[in-house]
Amino acid sequence: MTQPTLVRGEHLSVALSLAAAGVPVMPLRAGKVPFGNCPTCADNRCGGRPNMKTPGPCTCLRPCHGWAAATTDPHTLDSPEWAGVWRQAAAVAYHPGGAGVTVVDLDSADAITWAREHLPATRTVPTTRGEHWIYRGVMSSSNGVRHGVDIKSAMQYARWLGPGTGSPLTPLPDAVRALLVRGPAPARQRPVGAPMRAIGGGVCPHRSPVFLEGGIAMAEQRITAASSAVHATVFAAFLAVLSTHGRCGCLTDAHVQRLFAAAGAKGESARHCTEAWANAVHRLGMNA
Question: Fewer beta carbons below 10 Å: N end or C end of the chain?
Fold first, then answer.
């Protein structure tokens, strides 16, 4: 069983009902991805927060910046600026972290079997390919924490598929928090005390953390702003990060997870992210 198909006008009605209950909501376009940033917000020209750690402070009246556009303000949701977007919307999404919950997205029958064996029962929602298990509490989001399992909470969105059935919301268990230690695409850190030298003998440009932070933020924004050719954009962003920051050991798991999260927010699967990262590494000859 999946969410019944809604006519366009009903998406706004669902969104307003959820917002009234304190659930931050946003529209999704076809493909279960957010609407792209408007020209004013493209490339972060609006001054919005490039890392999207919290919604805003972009003053754009349209639903820009992916998950950060989610809101409980009925005036914003029903504003003239959002009207055209709702007419094009294919689904309603919500920000789990903003609603105080964590969604364990189980994308296959095997993942569901694993969850039933290892996680406490909680409210469940059927999806197209599996189930969402919803826990009370907020944590970091991460795709591909194990095969067929994604975590959607802070800085992420999930499609609204109904209130679910079964047990009341269970407090977020340690077993779910522990899944993050298996985050995607681990990256080697520079050993403590190692000289900050890049290949070729030049001084590593990351002696100032601002340079590395700026590169990651720019890649996140590039992915988030993509309104088409998302696969190609993700690969190009990964390639750019690796070509500039990948040879001196400064990239950490946290940096890679941020890039994967940005791609996941645009609808990219954990498998595609992993493949795109590996292809970028191969293109640059860094896996020798």
Answer: C
